[in-house]
Here is the input.
Amino acid sequence: MIVLEFKAKGKTTQYSAIDEAIRTAQFVRNKCIRFWMDNRGVGQKELYRHNTKLRAEFPFVNALNSHACQVAVERAYSAIARFYENCKKAIPGKKGDPQFKKNCRSVEYKTSGWKLSEDRGTISFIDKKGIGRLKLKGTWDLHFYQLDQIKRVRLVRRADGYYVQFLIRNEHQAVAAQPTGKTVGLDVGLKEFYTDSNGQTEPNPKFYRTNEKRLKFRQRGVSRKKKGSANRQKAINRLGRVHLKISRQREEHAKRVARCVIQSNDLVA
Here is the structure.
């Protein structure tokens, strides 16, 4: 699958509804983990049945789309299956015990619970959480893909706002490429980002070191605020924005370097 991401534009009440949907998905996942802890040996089918009981017992769970609740169950079972797999491999030390989530940042829908507009400029979430219609802001063109190719839609909360991700099944056709017979070796280091076998080097941008002073300033701001206060939450958001900037800088730099290595050495025919 390929992932297309758009910035979600809406009202404050809609953002609050997204937060409520994320908290509900976290609640379902944690309840499934607790059910597994109390009943070791249960499988994914038993977790699905437990999810049905939760929807009947809690109205706020029933308000979330049923497919979104199923995804929360699948996330819980994924953690359980990973734990069992690590036990079978006899990995020394901790085996990755399933943990309760304290700060989930996304909720995922399958093929229901949402509807795209005809111009692909807005998306409406039609469950009972009250998210409503969100405007999509981005450069990707959704007209290129059919609706049946969109298998999942994910709402993600980040420090700088909310995003909508479309998980699209795309059948890639194999392209016949002739090998050029050229190879290049890369040596990654601390002083230089990499040095190839032809003597070309790429300087290390050191994004973390560049932003370290700002990070310390924002971290001090968080530590000085009273726990549980609104000002502390604002300070945490400012700190998260700096970390998000560093993450995006690293990602864009890695993409640019990969393109430069391929083009400069003519590795693609």
About this structure: DSSP finds seven helices and ten strands in the chain.
